[in-house]
From TrEMBL:
PANTHER family: TRANSCRIPTIONAL REGULATOR, GNTR FAMILY, TRANSCRIPTIONAL REGULATORY PROTEIN. InterPro entries: GntR_C, TF_FadR/GntR_C, Tscrpt_reg_HTH_GntR, WH-like_DNA-bd_sf, WH_DNA-bd_sf. The keyword Membrane does not apply. It comes from Paracoccus simplex. Residues 7-74 form the HTH gntR-type domain. This is GntR family transcriptional regulator. SMART domains: FCD, HTH_GNTR.
Amino acid sequence: MSTGSEETLAVRISRVLADRIVSGEIGPGERLRQDHIAEEFGASHVPVREAFRRLEAQGLAISEPRRGVRVAAFDLPEVKEVAEMRAALEELALRHAAPHLTPAILDAAEEATKAGDASRDVRSWEAANRRFHKLILIPCAMPRLLATIDDLHAASARFLFAAWQSNWETRTDHDHRAILAALRKGDVDAACATLARHVRWIGRRPAPASDGKRDAFAIHG
């Protein structure tokens, strides 16, 4: 197998595993078994190890001496850290993106917000929410910044799915509309301030756990 094809396979493996982790199919603390994963994907250990490194870089997995690779656990301090990082980086991206936002982009972002408001489950809401943020941030044309923000969105989604495994409550996202209104008026400072506050807000609700109930925290922006 060539190095290029191994890298491509590593990306595919990491994406599949990331989706399973984010959705909760693979839970916090569960071990990622290299042999089993290599067999599932018909791969050698090389792309699997690279996939693990990608998951670690995203904060979705941790490597422990003599214990292998496990799905990372998460708690309130980690949720706060992700929220603060997203707020700072998304504000930076929006400031650079704002001069390049066209009416068509803002209209598409508004449609994404409407789709989120109409969502009947957490997964479709998260997809619409992520689409909104991408639409207004991608024009910054800063690929490293956008890649980091994308990783943070994956972490946010994981917190969200853990808190809302069932009984999703539909919501109207007033912040998204306020951001769009400010951008349409050319008030970038107001749009950035609203975006930062929006992303920093952390919701809390009881969630099922193996020993009964626990509090789950999630970034709802």
